[in-house]
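INFO batch 0412 | record 1 of 1 | parsing
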Amino acid sequence: MRELLKAYLDRMLDVNRTMNLTAIRDPREAWTRHIEDSLSLLNAADFRNKTCLDVGSGAGLPGMVLAIAEPSLDMTLLDATQKKTEFLRGTAEALGLRNVKCVHARAEEYAHTAARESFDIVTARGVAALGALCEICLPFLSVGGLFLAMKEDDSERADAENFGGAPRDGHWYELPGGITHYAAIFEKVSPTPAKYPRKWAAIKK
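INFO prediction complete | emitting tokens
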């Protein structure tokens, strides 16, 4: 697993020279802040034999890392930027990851397709405010599924019940160097009303 994770990180940092994937360029720092940060979610939920959607995957964080670490996980990486989706698809092929699917679409639109309420787990890594993430991500979950939002702390709040979710105890974790992060966790307890998620402009308001 470590060899695959290193190959993924090397590829990310190499492509990052011409594409904006990460502001971190030092390999050791990138390993801590990207790889180990993503792996921490394995202690927050059971990913074995689950279907997972990584919303706003970007460089593949945390989704690609989780797919490498847990081969039984059926992972879908979703991003609205075509170049990033192409990077993700090419990386999955180069690493031989048969459990990874890459989708180029806006999350708030993709949630109104057959993908709606079809996943066991949804992950997102700080791509928007927590309230907006709940509206975008909870519709993808089947009832009983979990949404994990990676944040730096637990200061944000969200009305998850509007979207069929309920907050659960979050997961604090520490990275090397004394860096402490937080994963907010929500369970899907009822179907999301059909009107959600709204268009992005409405969500931002």
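INFO post-check: The chain has one domain: 2-204.
INFO record closed
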